[in-house]
Amino acid sequence: MLKNIPKILSPELLKALCEMGHSDRLIISDGNFPCESIGKNSIVIRCDGHGTCEILDAILKIFPLDTYTEKSVNLMEVMKDDNIKTPIWKEYEKIVKKYDNRGKKTIGQIERFQFYKEAKDAYLIIATGEEALYANIMLQKGVVVE
């Protein structure tokens, strides 16, 4: 057991997060994301039974966001013809703001198929059981300065 590490972060997940370097990206995916096919060149860690918000909150407690890029957090943009609401994005904003003083300003959106393309280069994909649609979120790792 370790102190001050969120219990939701498994040893396998902690190892992968620790191995990531500056500018490496990770995806926290919803339950519909094709994590195994997209993540053929990535580490894929399953966190079924957990939602994206609780995983995001736990990760941001220990994971620095990149300050050398304007948008170190990116969401999968809703397709033009999809009439889908994304209330989970407001939750993401609150969580990001809690750990990064840029808050909403560091959150961007990437068109769906471009998001898939960029996700293929992610170091890590965390597959959750999140049921919200368009709940995929990409984080770019920064530098620890303390």
From TrEMBL:
Record-given protein name: L-fucose mutarotase
Matching InterPro entries: RbsD-like_sf, RbsD/FucU_mutarotase, RbsD_FucU
UniProtKB keywords: Isomerase
Species annotation: Peptoniphilus stercorisuis
Catalytic activity: beta-D-ribopyranose = beta-D-ribofuranose; alpha-L-fucose = beta-L-fucose
EC number: 5.1.3.29
Domain of life: Bacteria
GO molecular function: L-fucose mutarotase activity
